[in-house]
Amino acid sequence: MSATVVDQVKMQLLLAFDQPGCPLCRLRRDVEHSYVLSLLGERFSDDASRRRLRSSLGLCHTHAWTLQALERQVNRTGMATGMLYEELTEWVLQVLRAYLAQVPAAGASVAPGGALLPIRLWRRLKCWVTQRENTRRRALPFMQVLLSQLKPQSGCPACEAGVSGERDAIENLVCGLSDAAFRAAYGASDGLCLVHLRSALTAVHSEADACFLVESTLCKLKILTHDLNEFLRKHSWQYHHEPKLAWEQASWIRAIAFMVGEAPSDVAEHTQRVRLQAQLDYRERVTCLESGS
Amino acid sequence: MVDLITLDLRMAFEKPGCPLCRLRRETEQRYLFHLLYESVNDGVTRLRLVQSMGLCFRHAWLCQAIEWEQWEDGLGTGTIYEDLLSRTVSLLTDFLNHTQLKSKLSKLSLWSQRIPIFSDTAGRPEKHIHTVARAAGRAQPSTPARWILGRLRPIATCPACTLVDRSESTMLTWLTQEMANREFRSWYAASDGLCLPHLQLALALYVTDQPSAEFLIHHAAAQLGTLLHAFRECCLDTWQSPQSGTLIGDPEAIGKRLVAFMVGESIEFDDSAVQLQSQERGAQS
Asked: Residues 101..160 of B with a Cβ closer than 8 Å to A: which?
């Protein structure tokens, strides 16, 4: 490595190259988890962070459940998550009650004991006719105000942290390709998934770097495809007696990881265990290839 | 007379959580189960998957989880993804060949400028040869990998997403239309109600009359008020007597319900649905 200051992101990349799986998926997940954990720690009582959460109406679906799962794992409780969401749901409740207080009371529109078939058909026809936006607006006063109040004013802060971290990592990866040692470290890793390969190819500065990334990916992909073919072949009756290698058994899971990115962590423990084992088994395969065994 | 969709909705109302989230998850699981059980070698399905470059992130991992839960194997998913990987290998190989060809053609372009036969008397190169050579050899400084990027993008959306969105739209249409029916309202009133994202979707796109909108909002407000009250009581009980061992409720469970209201139900795999499908398959075989 050249004698220059190696910044934090580059160091994180080098560390991620040593770990199984796509390094950029890992970095992004680490940044997002770090943000989510900070919500349970230093950001829990921070006014600015709370205001940010109010503005985005909390976290997105993935990160909200990640927050709940991480708190369960780390603190063996769900109180902090409940408290964060208590504030948000209280606000939503106020908005809903304000809407109900605003609109005039509507009369009953349902015949007692359920409606007859012709009436139900008429109502369906009326619904179809009133699908047009201007008619809906007249039928639903104050609805646009309610919907605009319930709409988040900003994106999920954990997603934004993840995107920002990922962008920095990609820039550092692309810049680092000019360094021979960095290239060697990248070559020894499991390589990028297809999603991050596309992002990296968008950011490369030269065709030579693009070719390097593609060649490196192609090399690993050919091995994965071969292992996957072996995995499928050994399902046939005539070959079922052949020994089934760990990395071949892991290849179908690694194929998914290549096409869409590394597995999410907010799943049942037994599912996560299988996926992690596949990652480790495949890392062993890459290590064996490098050592020549 | 009750139609099948109303029946599905009614059954979902009887179970905990947002009924639309539950129905959406059941549709996803059913589609992926049948993809693995019947459609792995179906030409139309496979073509669709090639166009979308497989399933999206959520559905690809759900497919893996379903196959592992059902069969502790990966034959179906492996077959689908082996095809996709092979195509990706071809694309990447073509890119490298294309780059090498471009490099050779750009060298040809440089050399052809020195050969008099390809230059006119003024020394300018012949248009038709050099335009081709230059165009082939010219690098795009802003996007060196433009050639491969266009080919690595899917040209269709995830088939599971398309199906599930359509199913969700049908469910929401039915739910909002049946709101005029008193009996249906009573079923809905006994349920946990819609989560906030589904409530917003229903109010924005599907509800067309004021009474239905008010009913849905009133129900959501009532549910939320109950949850918040229960959560605060639990917290107070915990703080006042942490050692008592007897709590009004579980603050973690109620906190989870608050999260579920704000963002939708958790995507954790529904074991009960898998067990039911296993029993059905066992009965058929």
From this structure: 139, 143-145, 148-149, 152-153
